[in-house]
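User: Some background: our group keeps a shared notebook of sequences we're curious about, and every so often someone picks one and asks for a predicted structure to add to the entry. Today it's my turn. The entry only has the sequence so far, pasted here. Could you supply the structure so I can complete it?
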Amino acid sequence: MSKFAALDLGRVVAAHGRHCVVESPEGERTICHPRGKKSECVVGDLVRWQAAGDEGVIEHIEPRRNLLHRQDEWKTKSFAANLDAVLVIVAADPPFSEAQLARALIAAESAGIANDVLLNKCDLPQAAAARERLAPYRAMGVPVHEVAMKAVPDAARALLTPLLTGRTTLVLGPSGMGKSTLINLMVPGAAAQVGEISAALNAGRHTTTTTTWYWIDGERQSALIDSPGFQEFGLRHIDVLQLPGLMPDLRAHAGGCKFYNCTHRHEPGCTVIAAVERGEISPSRWRIYGEICDELARERY
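Assistant: Of course. Here's the predicted structure to add to the notebook entry:
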């Protein structure tokens, strides 16, 4: 038995710098600080903590089921831990970056987390083009759902409720795609919760940079985690040799190449290149694969 087992168990529901909000199994929330100078806690972590006056000290992080993070040349950014699903939001307008979408899905795949894509603003004329860009993702088995959260909120809520029920779902996406709209649609009193957490963490206007946990239901069985918008999604934590196996469309064709160490970039007898030529892998997906390969190869060597 762990030496920390006698301490209170809680879940990190918000974090900003070295300050965390820890929620008890009964739903009470306490401001806590990790012991030591650096915080390793992320939203979703289960932690052992003890009271210290009106606040608390985190003594131990329980083993994680998973952790979604991104890593670029300069730093690692953790989103959240112990997830059941990742929901990547894109929109008909403004146009989404397919490279960002692909990278988010690769990171989720690498962490062993189920992933879905949500196309928002599907009532706009630009939806047809967005739908066409998402066709390769549908074809390779990624669930793609369509909503118009502001135009038809009741229909959006009806679609999203069964998708989110009973799961802890991290919502990912660049700014402007509809993450805040989703939170406000699905979480009663979300704005009030943001205000309370902001006041507790003294985060003020910087709360937009804070990842936050929201309960969707009164029974606290279904949760949404809102994350800050991102412009870049580094994958430096992934081995370049693992990359084809993390992209379902490439993985489906990568087994029959002439060379066992085929990079699927230029070799003769490559079954992936042949699939691209036959139209079974989209050229944009293969281009994104090549860009990530180059990035990861530079890191490796």
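Suggested note for the entry: The domain at 8-61 is CATH 2.40.50.140 (OB fold (Dihydrolipoamide Acetyltransferase, E2P)). The first strand starts at residue 8 and ends at 16.
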